[in-house]
Amino acid sequence: MAIEKKNILNRLYLLAGAMFLFALAITYKVIDIQFIQGDFYKEKAESLTVKDFVIKANRGNIYSSDGSLLATSVSRFDIKMDAVTVSKENFEKNIKGLSKSLSQMIGKSASYWENYIRKGRKTDSRYMPITRNLGYNDYLKIKSFPMFNLGTYKGGIITEQRTVREHPIGKIAERAVGYDDGRGRVGIEGNFYEFLRGKNGKRLKQKIAKGQWKPLNDNNEVEPIDGKDVITTIDLDIQDVAHHALLGQLQKFEAEHGTVVVMETKTGEIKGISNLGRNKEGNYYERLNYAVGESHEPGSTFKLMSLMVALEDKVIDTSTVIDTDDGTYKVYNRTVRDSHRGGYGKISAGRVFELSSNVGVVKIIEKYYKENPQRFIDGLNRMEVGYKLDVPIKGEGVPTLPNPNDKERWFGTSLAWMAYGYGVHITPLQTLAIYNAVANNGEMVKPRFIKEIRNQNNVVKKYEKVVINPKIASQATIDKMKVLMKNVVKKGTATNIYNKNYELAGKTGTCQTEYWTDNTQYIASFAGYFPADNPEYSCIVVIHKPNKKIGYYGNVVAAPVFEQIAHQIYTKTPVMDEVRGYKRSPEIIVENFDSYNVKANKKYETMPNLKNMNGMDAVALLENLGLTVVFKGTGKVLNQSLKAGQKFDKTKIIELTLS
């Protein structure tokens, strides 16, 4: 009995000791939490109820040179549904009305929607997808549907808003305008993102009931800084002409892809650029920026550079006689051939260029540079051939010229093949810069895509003309090449595009590609400028892999695109001496830009006066007011269905008639 009592006492002592240690541990933890780690746990608790929310900055717009919108940010709405939160009474009262409304707006039958929503309610779905990518007007409409009009908690509607980038002119110039998102940074959007993005702000909010957050007054609150606007050099009229001229020819010849660039001669401003590639379904879209990024063998358009080197070195003149024999010429174990069977016999160096004789130009370069090929390379380098332009668009293709010092890659045929555009690689834009320099009396200017950066009405940064080389060749050589390029169209390989009302100048190119396979393909090109005697614009057209059964020569495939662009620019003024094309004074551009900015930043209770406003700007203005717009035509606003000053109804459609 005494032993048992002793054991009980021992257990009590042990239990008391354990309880003492436990109490001691609790006391220590309380002290630790309250005094040692108090700040940490306080911050952690606050982080669950108070946190900073990012306030997104508005991204800047991208405009054409005349103030038309090329890219802007708009709100898009995704709609989901919490099928559980709606009371039974409200659900049964409104389900049929909601289903009918969804059917009319989205499609599918009313019974489909009723079954879909009932099934979601039965399976306790709290995040059912309904529709996505709605514009503001449709978002307001769907909020008014039965059940949804009861709000988030009574009606179960869940709205997710996001900002997306849209191009008001559609797919035209899409690749040049580019993007800055999860796909990367491309084009103007990608390369000028520091200006366009702006700077996000932040606001402190406190969590309240049902997962909602209430803003708190906070000294650390940072307001967002909106992005700046980028004004491009793109002329919307010329861009539209270039795009459709290229598209039509690609479709006609079932080509793989192609590019066209129109540049203002004196300034280097890019007025139009289109890059179209074909998908598996046979449709064309802005796939890659071929003009800037695709370095390839140019073929006969390179003969301009070859002949200019020879003229500059004074080893020939345009009257120098060249014997093209029967149109074939052996260089080691390979044969150079002219496209004209039987050759041209004895012709001048000028006619070699005009008729695009491969044999003729190879004989010239071989005769005078074979013993010292580096002299020929140096002549090309003096004209900036073989160098990048360093344009502000990422991904510029690297030009390459064979080098006689590279013994592993320099062959006995290298000089001859280079003379007529093989074995060298150059992008369409780099080729155009050389042709533009000839048109510009030897001054080589950098191709320019941007005019200025603006912050509302203030110019933040202005981009001026950049001269790469003040004189790529002597005036004598320039003058001779101008005559020859004019003759190419008048009596050479491009007579099919000759028009006495607006004389053109340029050079055709037909280059073989994939000639190392059993299925040789072709690249058709044309580079030049217009008007021939007083150049205002230079232009290059390159079309890859046309259907050989339909046609593949540069004069047939590429030159008509060039001619169509020139014709459409000058169609209203056939007398060339009086043509001024689409030249616009900077004052008019700034006036149009400022006019739109004033209207866009104004709050409207009634319909604004849109007459004579650019159509795309008018559409953007009305859609930002939450209105639905349909329009007919292109250009400026002639008529609006709701007169200026009348109160607008966001459920009604506004119709615009454009010139």
From TrEMBL:
Its main location: membrane. PROSITE patterns: PASTA. InterPro entries: Beta-lactam/transpept, Beta-lactam/transpept-like, PASTA_dom, PBP_dimer, PBP_dimer_sf, PCN-bd_Tpept. Gene3D superfamilies: 3.30.10.20, 3.30.450.330, DD-peptidase/beta-lactamase superfamily, Penicillin-binding protein 2a (Domain 2). It comes from the Bacteria. CDD domains: PASTA_Pbp2x-like_2 (cd06575). Pfam families: PASTA (PF03793), PBP_dimer (PF03717), Transpeptidase (PF00905). The keyword Transmembrane applies. The chain crosses the membrane at residues 12-31. It is found in: Membrane. Residues 601-659 form the PASTA domain. This is Transpeptidase family protein. It comes from Aureibaculum flavum.
